[in-house]
Amino acid sequence: MKAEDLRNKTPDQLRDELVSLKKEAFNLRFQKATNQLDNTARIRKVRRDAARVSTILNEKARVAAAN
């Protein structure tokens, strides 16, 4: 997921994306705990994508507050 693509989305779309990423991270943690997780790198990618979405949401909020 690229930041450029995320910046073109609306805040509502970003919030939906963040919710889905957090759900996926939750499911991946459970898979790891039960030794069912095949791709351990996926956890890192999902966490970073969630952080990226949060950052862009905060940027958009800051710009909206400044105007």
From TrEMBL:
- Short name of one Pfam family: Ribosomal_L29
CDD domains attached to this UniProt entry:
Ribosomal_L29_HIP
| Keywords from the named record | Ribonucleoprotein, Ribosomal protein
GO BP annotations of the record are: translation
Among the GO molecular function terms of this UniProt record, one is: structural constituent of ribosome
Q: Name one GO cellular component term.
A: cytosolic large ribosomal subunit
Q: Which domain of life is it from?
A: Bacteria
User: Which SUPFAM superfamilies does the UniProt entry name for this protein?
Assistant: Ribosomal protein L29 (L29p) (SSF46561)
Is Ribosomal protein one of the keywords? yes
The UniProt entry's sequence similarity note says:
Belongs to the universal ribosomal protein uL29 family.
The name this protein goes by in its record: Large ribosomal subunit protein uL29
Upper lineage: Bacteria, Pseudomonadati, Pseudomonadota, Alphaproteobacteria, Rhodobacterales
